Amino acid sequence: MNASDQQVPFRRTVVSYVQRGERMTVGQQRAWDRHWSELGSEVTALPEGPLDLAAWFGRSAPAVLEIGSGMGETTSQLVAAQPDANYLAVEVYKPGLAQLMLRAEKLEVTNLRLLRGDAIVLLRDHIEPASLAEVRIYFPDPWPKKRHHKRRLVQPDSVRLIASRLAPGGVLHLATDWENYAEQMMEVCQAEPQLRNRYADEPGGWAPRPEWRPVTKFENRAHEEGREIHDLIFERI
């Protein structure tokens, strides 16, 4: 592997998230105090270079990265349903990570690790090229106003970076309930030469909604408000 394979240039001028309050419930604080030192890390506190996932998880297994785990409603169920995967969740919202640990504790999962901070920095500086089995981005902030579209996570540079971190045959799975963002996602992913659409022959190239992806209250709300859910599943060539 040459040097250009190891590092994908990525200079950011804006970020796709906003910083929110960090006040936690009593239960969230207890979960944080019990589990964060073992299960979590700040992205900014990671040692220089790639994460040693096998050491952190205590085993070698296919690695799944979810970007933006929110309050953990979906993530905890996905982790429990994939005990053979090393599941990484990256999120900027501290109470959300605490709530995810609380949910994971109730489900008695052991294959989850959490990272707090910028997913792009994590991917760029701490994830080995061709090391991930899957990257999942479910219902990212749509930044619906046109002047804010530049803040959307799914952009050509970020998708190129993500694709470089997927192993051959690895999957990038996106889902959104915003039509305009779905179209942007499709355009960006189709233009990325490292990826191919697994469902290119389906109408519009959209993937069927996977039955295993849990339905959240936000997805139900989107249906109630008349917004269609779009899934996109692309594979690393």
TrEMBL record:
Source domain of life is Bacteria
Q: Where along this sequence does the record place binding of substrate?
A: 145, 177, 216-219
EC number(s) reported in the record: 2.1.1.33
| Gene Ontology molecular function, alphabetical | tRNA (guanine(46)-N7)-methyltransferase activity
- Magnesium as a keyword of this entry, yes or no, is no
Identify the metabolic or biological route this protein is part of: tRNA modification; N(7)-methylguanine-tRNA biosynthesis
- The regions listed as transmembrane in this protein's record are none
- Top enzyme class, one word, equals transferase
Recorded catalytic reaction(s): these are: guanosine(46) in tRNA + S-adenosyl-L-methionine = N(7)-methylguanosine(46) in tRNA + S-adenosyl-L-homocysteine
Q: Which GO terms describe its cellular component?
A: tRNA methyltransferase complex
User: What does the entry list as the binding residues for S-adenosyl-L-methionine?
Assistant: 66, 91, 118, 141
Keyword line: Methyltransferase, S-adenosyl-L-methionine, Transferase, tRNA processing
Give the Pfam families listed for this entry: Methyltransf_4 (PF02390)
Spell out the InterPro entries in the cross-references.
Answer: SAM-dependent_MTases_sf, tRNA_(Gua-N-7)_MeTrfase_Trmb, tRNA_methyltr_TrmB_bact
Q: Which family does it belong to?
A: Belongs to the class I-like SAM-binding methyltransferase superfamily. TrmB family.
Function recorded in the entry: Catalyzes the formation of N(7)-methylguanine at position 46 (m7G46) in tRNA.
Q: Would you tell me the protein name for this molecule?
A: tRNA (guanine-N(7)-)-methyltransferase
Which species is listed as the source?
Answer: Saccharopolyspora shandongensis
Q: Which gene encodes it?
A: trmB
